[in-house]
Specification:
Elements: E1 3-7, E2 22-28, E3 31-33, E4 36-39, E5 44-49, E6 58-59, E7 76-81, E8 86-91, E9 99-104
Parallel strand pairs: 2-5, 4-9
Antiparallel strand pairs: 1-7, 2-3, 5-7, 6-8, 8-9
Length: about 100
């Protein structure tokens, strides 16, 4: 498991020849977009906070296999690599009505 908070970058990690893929979820207007995303085992999901307020990504069920990010200010990102298949529901720790789901196949 690897998690990091970093400032937003203009580069993209997606490459056609890569065995794993990075998928982006934007946080804007107090919502995760897309709210539901499907990835493969080993893929990384990057959440990008574009709101003017702080947000976080917290799994509904705590697990080492699920995201548990700290607060992100505008322009910051949180990355999590999913190494186990399953469905991972998550929410913003500050705004619990903000929800999303990652399905890992």
């Amino acid at each position: 498991m690897q998690t990091t908070n970093t400032s937003q970058s203009s580069t993209t990690d997606k490459t056609a020849s890569s065995a794993t893929q990075t998928n982006a979820v934007t946080i804007q207007n107090f919502a995760f977009s897309p709210a539901t995303i499907k990835v493969k085992v080993g893929d990384t999901v990057t959440w990008i906070n574009q709101d003017s307020t702080q947000h976080s990504v917290i799994a509904n069920t705590a697990s080492a296999d699920a995201p548990n990010g700290s607060l992100m200010a505008k322009g910051e990102t949180y990355k999590f690599t999913f190494n186990k298949a399953g469905t991972y529901a998550y929410h913003c720790g500050v705004h619990p009505s903000m929800t999303g789901t990652v399905t890992v196949e």
